[in-house]
Predict the 3D structure of the following.
Amino acid sequence: MLLGGNKYYGLNLKKETITTMRGFGGGMHTEELCGALSGGVAVIGVIFSEKKEYDQDKIKEATKEFVEKFSQELTSTNCQEVKNIYREEVYKCSPVVGKAGEILERTLCKYQRLNK
């Protein structure tokens, strides 16, 4: 998610920054919190922290909504539960990442529009 968000939103993150998210895949390799969800939260944090003084309230509200919508639309935030429904052998978790990206885009658009 962070790699895709970096490209899509032109965040210009360094490779080293992006690689910090490697441990979050596969529900942090415990099949707990979905890595796509963790990555989306990272994108929210980067986008709303671009200015010298970041907006903690905006980060909090956007994160809360992203997590809630993710849970509603994918039925859970748990990696194992989400994989059981959406993971495909050929495409792995690409369907989950795609859906998470759609939810993230809607969330970012809403909070960027409301707070400009």
User: Anything to note?
Assistant: Residues 94-114 form the longest helix (21 residues).
